[in-house]
Amino acid sequence: MNIKTVFRALRHKNYRLFFAGQSISLIGTWMQQIAVSWLVYRMTNSAFLLGLVGFSSQISTFLLAPLAGVIADRHHRRRLLLITQALAMVQAIILYVLYVTHTITVTEIILLSLFLGAVNAFDIPVRQAFTVDMINDREDLSNAIALNSSMVNAARLIGPFVGGVLIALFGEGTCFLVNALSYIAVLFSLVMMTLPRWEHSGRHKESVVLQLREGFFYVLHFMPIRTILMLLSVISLVSGGVQAMMPVFARDIFHGGARALGLLMAASGLGALTGAIYLAGRRTVVGLGKVIAYTAVLFGCGVIIFSRTSLLMIAMPVLLFSGFGMMVQMASSNIILQTIVEEDKRGRVMSFYTMAFMGLSPFGSLFSGVLAVKIGANNTLLGGGLFCIIAAIVFALHLPKLRGFIRPVYIKKGIIIEPIH
Prior knowledge:
Growth Hormone, Chain: A
């Protein structure tokens, strides 16, 4: 694999700044995430409340993402990101202050999680659409998307491990403070970018409701986008359940503590990072349709095996493979969507991607919390893995039809390669 091919999007100055700032900030984000999960479970010993906190952290994303997509198509994306990142910093600061003053409760954690979820509802689709603004050569777009995923998962690998160590040594509050400080890096990178003057397309004068409806019908009636998002939704539901149950497995099944939780999340993150690097090294988007189906099956099988093991040393390599499958499936879906979408609908389509990728995850957290109380965490994840495999098979059976829908879009864009193979 040619190293220049893997990192070719970094030749764009704006993207280099973004990559550096986000890499630092996301490590803090993952540190805070593991700290919140561990704090809730330590305070309550409740799998249900653990799932409820996961639900509250992302339900706002599901509800507000379509509106965020319209805003991303109507307004300056860098300014929007400056606002969302600053608000996320405020949330981390409040968490830290409540922790060090010993006034933090589960209720406050839920409320702050709802707030951060609302911020992310706008931040994520805007950030996805903003990738195009930072890349001058569209041939590097798929590489930039893959590098975004590698950046997230490098942080996912480093953040939980460091977070687990810091929790064991100093307590959860340290993770909240580090996360708050990490936002300085991304805010600085956004300010330092040199971007073309923002010009409205003229559509900002149209009704928001009209544009919401237009985006919804575009996604609903364009079969490739609809089908990709449906499979992505299933993967998101199950992955949300897996993440919510991690503290339960770490403490009650593997008989470990915060470090065990950090190791489990780091193993999944390493697999996801490997998957993102694999995608970044691909020179073409051809064949990503089959890749999506295969990796969805790989993720489902990994979840099933993980649900049946009681040994940490076996669970870690299993999570590595399932993390690889999950990330390649999700990032490949992102690449295809950004490749075939019409430019004036990019923000709205990416908002539906955000709903499927992030917005449904809280339902997975909540459902898994409820089911774990009734049938156990092991059986809950077993069912989720089977669900993924079935959905992947259905997607694979629809691939021939998807190629027929994609071809006219590529002819219209003057592109001769097709990603659905």
